[in-house]
Amino acid sequence: MGLGQAPALPEVITLEQAIQEALAKNLDLAAQKWNVSIAEAQEITAALRPNPVLTVAGQTLNLIGARYNANSPAGPNQFNLHTDFPIERGGKREERKALARENKTLAELGVRELMRQVIFAVQSAFVDVQRAKEALKLAQDNLKSLEGVVAINESRLKSGDLAQVELDRSQVAALQFRTAVQQAQLQLDQAKIQLQYLIGRRQRMEAFDVTGPLRRDVVVDPQAEIRRLALSRRPDYLFGQQTQARTRADLRLQIANGKVDYSIGTEFTHQNAYGFGGPSVGIYFSAPLPVFNRNQGEIARAQREGSQARARIEALDASITAEVEQAYRQYTVSRQLLTAVESDMLGKARSVRDTTEYSYRRGEASLIEFLDAQRAFNDAMQTFNEAQANYARSLYLIDTVSGATVSGN
Questions:
Q1: Structural contact between residues 167 and 184, judged by C-beta atoms closer than 8 angstroms
Q2: Spatial contact of 252 and 95, defined as CB atoms under 8 Å apart
Q3: Cα–Cα dist 131/188, whole Å
Q4: Which of 13, 101, 136, 393 satisfies CB 3.0 to 4.6 Å to 17 for a cystine?
Q5: In Å, how far are 89, 250, 290, 303, 304 from 256, measured between CA atoms?
Q6: pLDDT tens profile 215-267
Q7: What is the secondary structure of 101-142 as a DSSP string?
C-alpha cells in the first residue's frame, strides 16, 4: 500500500465489522457528531466575560467663522477618555457555563441514540443479507434438482419410455425455478446494497458479502428486567432525563438574568483655554432600574419547559414499556415458531420430497406428485429460513430496546 493510500475495504465482513464500519463512516451519524463540537464551542462562548467599553470624545467651542481660534471666549477645549466595566450579578457566567455543559451532554446522548438506531439498522440489514443468501441457495438447489429430472426425462424420451408432454412439463417447471433463482439473486443484491449504504460505503462493491451464522442464542433476562435495564441505559430515556436537568439549569440562568448588572466607569477629562487648563478624573456608577423588565417572560418559559420535560419523561416511560413488551412478545413467538418448524415441518417435508423424487425417477410417481412434493419442501424451507431470520431479528430487537448495544458493557 502506497503512502497516503487508504487501506482496502474487506469484501467479506462479519456483523461486528459491519457495525464498527457503520459507526465510523455512517453519513447520518457523522453529521450528528458535529452537534457535540458545536456544543463545545458554545461552552467557550458561555465562559466569556462581557467586554469593557471605551469612549473617546473631544469638543471645542472655539470656532469663529468656521475657523479655529484658541483665544475665543466661547469656551474651553475639552478631551474625554471614558471607560465602562460591566459587572455581572447573580452568577450569570457560572449559570451560562452550567447550561452549556448540560447542552453538551444532550448532544452526546443524541449521538448515542443515533448509534443505537444505526446499530439495529445494520443488524437488521445483515440478517436480510443472510436470509437472502439462504433463499438463493434454496432456489439454486431446487433448480439443480429439477434440471437433473429434466436430464433423466430427456433420456427416457429417447428410449421411448416417456411422452413428449411429460418432458415439456418438466422443462416448464425448470424454467419457473430458473426465474425463482433470478428473483432470489435480485433480492440478495438489493439487501447487499442497503447494507453497504448503512455502513457508509459510497462505492458499491460487486464482490461484497457477509459471513457468519444467524443468531440462535436464548434471552435469559425476564421482561421486567429488560424494562429496568432499558430505563437505566437507553440514550433516548437518558436524553429525556437530561432535558429535565437542562431546563433546571436554564431556569437558574433566567433567574440570574433577571438581576440587573452594574457598570462602573472612569473618565479622564482635559480642558484648555487661554493657555490655562488641566486634567480631571471622575468615577461613575450606573445600573438599570428593574421597573418593567425583570426577565419575567423567560423565567416563565423555562418553568413551562420544565413541566413539558417531565410530561415527556412519563410518555417515554410508557413508550419504552410498550416497546419492551412488544419485543419480548415477538421474541417468544419467533422462538416458538422456529422450534415448531424445525422439529415438525422441515424433516417431514424433506422426507416426502426425497421419497417422491426417488419414486419419480423410478417411474412410480407422476411429475405432478413430484412437483407438489418439491413445492411443499420449498415452502417449508422458506418458512424455516424466514423463521430463523425473524428469530435473529427478535434477539437484536431485545438488545436494542434494552439499550444493550450502547451500554458500553
A1: no
A2: yes
A3: 8
A4: 13
A5: 7, 10, 13, 14, 17
A6: 999 999 999 999 999 999 999 999 999 999 999 999 999 999 999 999 999 99
A7: HHHHHHHHHHHHHHHHHHHHHHHHHHHHHHHHHHHHHHHHHH
Residue 54: strand pairing partners = 83
For residue 238, the number of C-alpha atoms closer than 13 Å in the C-beta half-sphere is: 22
Q: Are 327 and 398 in contact (CB under 8 A)?
A: yes
Residue located via cell numbers 429496568:
228
Rounded Cα distance between 282 and 14, Å, is 77
The SS3 of residue 221 is coil
CB under 8 Å to 3, separation ≥6 — which residues? none
User: Which triple of cell numbers denotes residue 214?
Assistant: 444467524
Rounded-to-integer distance, Cα 133 and Cα 136, Å: 5
Instruction: Report the predicted TM-score, pTM, of the whole model to 2 decimal places.
Output: 0.82
Per-residue pLDDT, averaged over 302-311, amounts to 95
The class that CATH gives domain 17-49+88-258+294-406 is mainly alpha
The Cα–Cα gap between 74 and 69 comes to: 10
Q: State which amino acid sits at residue 213.
A: P
- The C-alpha cell that represents 249 in the structure block: 439549569
Residue with cell 438463493: 136
Strand order in the sheet with 77-87: 53-59, 77-87, 262-273, 276-286
Paired with 209 in beta bridges are 12
Q: Where are the domains of the chain?
A: 17-49+88-258+294-406, 50-87+261-293
Distance separating alpha carbons of residues 315 and 30, to the nearest angstrom: 29
Lookup result for grid cell 428486567: 225
Single-letter amino acid, residue 235: P
